[in-house]
Amino acid sequence: MDTRDSIRPVGPVVIDIENITKDYVMGEEIVHALRGVSLQIHKNEYIAIMGPSGSGKSTLMNMLGCLDTPTSGRYEFNGRNVAEMNDDELAAIRNREIGFVFQTFNLLPRSTSLRNVELPLIYAGIDRETREERAAQTLVDVGLGDRIHHKPNELSGGQRQRVAVARALVNRPSIILADEPTGNLDSKTGEEIMALFEDLYQRGNTIIVVTHEADIARHARRTVRLRDGVIESDELVSVAELETVALP
Amino acid sequence: MKRFFYELSESWKIAVAQMRSNMTRSTLTALGVIIGIVAVTLMGTAIGGIQVGFDKSMAIFGDDVLYVGQWPWKNVDDWWNYRDRKKIKTEYADGLNRMIAMTSNSNLAIAIPTSSVYRSVKYMDSEVNNVLIRGTVSDYIITSTFDFKEGRFFNELESRGGANVCVIGYDVADALFPSASPIDKSVLINGQPFKVVGVISRQGSFLGLFSLDAIVVMPLPAFQKYFTAKSEAEILVKVKDKTKLADAKDELAGLMRRVRGLSPEKRDDFSINEQQALKSTLDPIKNSIAIAGLFITGLSLFVGAIGIMNITFVSVKERTKEIGTRKALGARRRTILLQFLIESTALCLLGGIIGLTFAFLMCFLIGVAFPSFPIHFSSGLVLVSMLVSVMTGLISGFAPAWSASRLDPVTALRYE
């Protein structure tokens, strides 16, 4: 057995969702994107959220990422009620607690890797010196120590996604939320990014990957499957972990 | 607060980078503001120039001198009431001086008679037309501010005796004696020879319109001997304390009424003028320039502002995904608002700086081409135009920046 299936201590609850729903108005129709989802995510978990398109997977990700608020239900992030937060409070949560990794990388095209990684630190109000030091260190951590002053168009796809991962990590968030992180990469580069996630997980980060690819989901320790706005299944990869997660 | 500062500097860097990468677009958009700022500056320069030129011209008249004449120094609607007034006579000056001497604590110092006509002045084969010929007394020099390039003013003896001497203005000297000194030469006026004793140094022109240097000044008795026809007399009265000009004016009016022998129920049949009165006649001109300028400026700035607003809307649309990303990374509404406000302001500031450079060059060229035109490019004007640029940027950028700040992060992130 490799380390993947070893028993890991499970930390406190980071995300606690209870029976949340989300309705959208599309024209004259009301779409029920989420119809009552409950989910608990602990510190240092590695979760894949799967589901076909239209399953509510993206909507759930937006909720988890505090980009959107639920129509009904309870959402606590580190014990704080997110459902009732205003835009600025949500922005602060996103800034400090959540590290986003997007399918399309979403780097600022005219800024260097360093400036891109610095961005969340600017919004956190950290001084320039600390910012540059921490951004540079994080780039070294993801293996881009020699690409600090390169702009996105001077980097390969895999390197761009590594910059994005560094940007997600730099503010030491409670969770890393990756939306199809390998969707725009070839399979070999994709595997490299997944190896990076594995490494981050081993170092104690909490990772949530949203994907429709089973190959990618396979890297996670727990898989949550959605269908038609409800959780279809929620499985741990190993029996050993199932026991620990099941503890109150 | 610290965070606000970081966001500010970050926004500024982005704005500059954005302008650089869209140089053509930015410059074209800034064109409206450029034109607006050129208009602002040129208008300001024109008004400032008129003011400076006016003050300079006024200084020649002296601000402590009252001018007694038949006509007031302003446009009058009832000109027929003034036309039939008795002419002012140079003899009044003697009467006034006697009364001033008898009044204890008089606000007036001295009255100087003057009489003027326009004539040609000749020397050998050269001739200058339309020269102001003025007869006066030697004390005239007290009320005037001019210096002498050469020679002197005529003295009391020459003044009383009515000697055929004269002092000539810079233009007259320049035209008749281009290479030699005019001192002790005789010029011909009305066929009479007058010996030149002094040349007045250059006075410039009144508001750049007519020269103050085409002048010949001579003793009053000599003037009266040859130039009585169509001459117009004016009494110059110097006041002791220019802060009490109003009192002095009242006193002078009283004295003039006694000189004219007016009974109390009669109205004044003379006008007491002062430098200030000229200023007030100029104000409507200045105001109409300002209003016209303000209209043009406002219009071009308005057009410029719409351009900036439009391009900022385009920029917001183009960078919707970036806005979404920034929001996901923790940018607050205020941060996004600030970023786009700074972008539109930076664009306007760019326009302002280019506009100011243009205006400065134009002022410089006008100054070179028409040296007599009063040009006044002040640092206050620079400040005002920068302020106007910033305000334009803030106002025109607000609507697009606001819409950017209100974008829903989910929608923005999904935007392609």
Concise summary:
The complex is a heterodimer of chains A (248) and B (416). Chain A has 248 residues and is α/β, with parallel strands linked by helices. Chain A has helices at residues 57-64, 87-97, 113-123, 128-141, 157-169, 187-202, 214-217, 239-246; strands at 13-26, 29-42, 46-50, 72-77, 80-81, 98-101, 175-179, 207-211, 222-227, 230-236.
List its salient traits.
heterodimer, A: 248 residues, alpha/beta, Rossmann fold, six-stranded mixed β-sheet, four-stranded antiparallel β-sheet, 10 strands, globular, disordered N terminus, B: 416 residues, alpha+beta, 2 domains, six-stranded mixed β-barrel, two-stranded antiparallel ribbon, 12 strands
In total, the number of strands of chain A is 10
Helix content of chain A: 25-40%
* Structural domain count of chain A: 1
CATH class of chain A reads: Alpha Beta
- CATH superfamily grouping of chain A: P-loop containing nucleotide triphosphate hydrolases
Low-confidence stretches of chain A: 1-7, 239-248
* Oligomer classification: heterodimer
- SSE-based structural type of chain B: alpha+beta
Per DSSP, what share of the residues of chain A sits in E-state strands of 2 or more residues? 25-35%
Low-confidence stretches of chain B: none
Shape of chain A: globular
Shape of chain B: elongated
Largest sheet of chain A: 6 strands, mixed
CATH domain fold name of chain A: Rossmann fold
* Largest inter-chain contact set: A-B, 28 and 25 residues
Instruction: Enumerate the strands of the largest sheet of chain B in spatial order, edge to edge or round the barrel.
Output: 2-3-10-5-7-6
Write the layout of secondary structure elements.
The complex is a heterodimer of chains A (248) and B (416).
Chain A: E1 13-26, E2 29-42, E3 46-50, H1 57-64, E4 72-77, E5 80-81, H2 87-97, E6 98-101, H3 113-123, H4 128-141, H5 157-169, E7 175-179, H6 187-202, E8 207-211, H7 214-217, E9 222-227, E10 230-236, H8 239-246
Parallel strand pairs in A: 3-8, 3-9, 6-7, 7-8
Antiparallel strand pairs in A: 1-2, 1-4, 4-5, 9-10
Helix pairs in contact in A: 3-4, 3-5, 4-5, 5-6
Chain B: H1 2-21, H2 23-61, E1 65-69, H3 80-83, H4 92-102, E2 108-123, E3 126-136, H5 140-143, E4 148-151, H6 156-161, E5 165-168, H7 170-176, E6 186-189, E7 192-200, E8 205-206, E9 210-211, E10 215-219, H8 220-226, E11 232-239, H9 245-260, E12 271-273, H10 275-318, H11 320-328, H12 333-369, H13 379-405, H14 409-414
